[in-house]
Amino acid sequence: xxxxxxxxxxxxxxxxxxxxxxxxxxxxxxxxxxxxxxxxxxxxxxxxxxxxxxxxxxxxxxxxxxxx
Length: 68
Hints:
Layout: H1 2-14, H2 19-26, H3 30-37, H4 45-55, H5 59-63
Helix pairs in contact: 2-3
């Protein structure tokens, strides 16, 4: 359930932006971000923090504990 919440919230945050560009700006590989979006990989806390910082969102929002 956690992977699904993260993927759903990431998709909303990414919107129409380029996944490859966001991955580059975060400092991860595009395929890694794609795998998170497809619920294929568990996301490490350090990466989750980088993503939260990039989007200026809390970790609670990314994991689905609170709404935007």
